[in-house]
UniProtKB/TrEMBL annotation:
InterPro entries: DNA/RNA_pol_sf, Retrotrans_Pao, Rev_trsase/Diguanyl_cyclase, RT_dom. This is ribonuclease H. It comes from Mugilogobius chulae (yellowstripe goby). It comes from the Eukaryota. Belongs to the beta type-B retroviral polymerase family. HERV class-II K(HML-2) pol subfamily.
Length: 421
């Protein structure tokens, strides 16, 4: 197996050599990167006596789900975001596992020489195993320091990180400043450097050393400049207005089944903010599957007409914004909280949406939490059964939100207009 992989890698290296010989700039960039990895000890040459390698086994995925982290990020008024610098490179690879991370490289990037076999001593970017191993190390750091830091700091390390991204929201600016300092300290205990801080509070950012701020925030005039737009796990976060927004780039794509799928796949929406908008496009794609249209065949005229109409309305999404925080600033603890879930279905699709209802004194506030919309199966299903499926989806959303939101919920109320069950 290792011999076959070696030959595969050797052939790949020959292809790389041909490609880099065409672009001298690429060759220099490639060489500088690999030589830097080797010089820092992130990779080592494989000893002659260990070239045969060993077999291994599979593990699990200890990191948090993206949607869980985003949900917690929306809970309080003051939001902070940080990043662990070169997280994977800070985690050593066990000696018995290094042989699974071998690669071939020419000495000093000289492609006229025979390639040498190297292996990583730390986890590399791009390997499927790296996120799990790095997250395991981060969790171990939290567990090993439970007695040294406040419980909330340890819980944040365990539940508010998506791989190397930290997303946290607090009720006050003072809490946020303290949390940033404590998180940086606890991460350093595990050899991690938590940096690239961003916040919707200018007070919080001023309390962070400039070298630990995000790159675009180094020379920001916090008295006059607007806070820049940031990406939060793929979502666009307008930090100045503290809202999520959408930027739809309408690139020209062929009017084919493949082109339609490509565009739908580019509509990143993990919390279901625009589920009612994307669902009609998914229905069109399913119709093409039903008609067994080829991937690169031109769309039928009636589908083209429906697609064009749907496509023309998408620029309006740039005007659509959703508040990041689900709780108004005037709402102090304690508040009465309920979740309301609505579900419904039709012959084309079904879905559910969840809202949080907060009550503080005489004030009431309702916030969108999450939405899901799915096309119905190709195999015909009765409307009552689809409505029941939508209700089940709502219950699952409730279970997830109850587990992730740190709120004392009075009740969850489920709404459906079905009388069939």
């Amino acid at each position: 197996m290792l011999h076959n992989q070696y030959m595969h890698d050797f052939n790949e290296k020959n292809n790389d050599e041909q490609g880099m010989s065409i672009e001298d700039g690429l060759q220099q960039e490639y060489t500088d990167f690999i030589e830097d990895v080797i010089s820092k000890g992130y990779a080592e040459r494989v000893p002659e006596c260990q070239l045969e390698g060993v077999k291994g086994r599979f593990g699990s995925y200890p990191h948090q789900q993206l949607i869980w982290v985003l949900t917690r990020f929306r809970q309080e008024q003051v939001a902070v975001m940080g990043d662990i610098r070169q997280m994977f490179y800070q985690v050593k690879v066990a000696s018995e596992d290094k042989d699974f991370l071998r690669f071939l490289w020419w000495p000093q990037g000289d492609t006229s020489q025979d390639p040498i076999e190297y292996r990583m001593t730390v986890h590399l970017f791009g390997a499927v195993s790296s996120p799990s191993c790095a997250c395991f190390a981060l969790r171990k750091t939290a567990e090993d320091n439970q007695g040294r830091f406040a419980k909330e700091v340890v819980e944040t390390l365990l539940h508010n990180f998506y791989v190397d991204d930290c997303l946290k929201s607090t009720a006050t600016e003072e809490e946020a400043i303290t949390m940033i300092k404590d998180l940086m300290n606890i991460c350093s205990k595990g050899g991690f450097q938590l940096t690239k801080w961003v916040s919707n509070s200018r007070v919080v950012i001023r309390a962070v050393d400039e070298i630990h701020r995000a790159k675009d925030w180094f020379e920001l005039d916090l008295d006059r400049d607007d806070l820049p737009l940031e990406r939060v796990l793929g979502l666009h976060w307008c930090v100045e207005k503290d809202v999520f927004q959408f930027k739809m780039i309408q690139r020209e794509r062929p009017l084919t089944r493949r082109g339609l799928l490509s565009y739908l796949s580019s509509m990143y929406d993990p919390l279901g903010f625009i589920a009612p908008i994307s669902l009609p496009g998914k229905i069109l794609l399913q119709e093409l599957c039903r008609r067994k249209c080829g991937w690169d065949s031109e769309l039928p005229p009636d589908i083209q007409q429906r697609w064009t109409k749907w496509f023309r309305d998408l620029p309006k999404l740039s005007e659509f914004k959703v508040g990041r925080c689900i709780k108004p600033c005037q709402f102090k603890s304690p508040v009465k909280a309920q979740m309301h879930h609505f579900s419904d279905a039709s012959e084309n699709g079904y879905g559910a949406v969840s809202y949080l209802r907060l009550e503080s004194g005489m004030d009431v506030h309702v916030a969108f939490l999450q939405g899901k919309a799915r096309v119905t199966p190709l195999k015909q299903v009765t409307i009552p059964r689809l409505e029941l499926t939508a209700a089940v989806l709502a219950v699952r959303m409730d279970n997830m939100l109850r587990a992730e939101l740190q709120l004392s919920l009075e009740s969850s109320i489920f709404w459906t207009d079905s009388t069939s069950f």
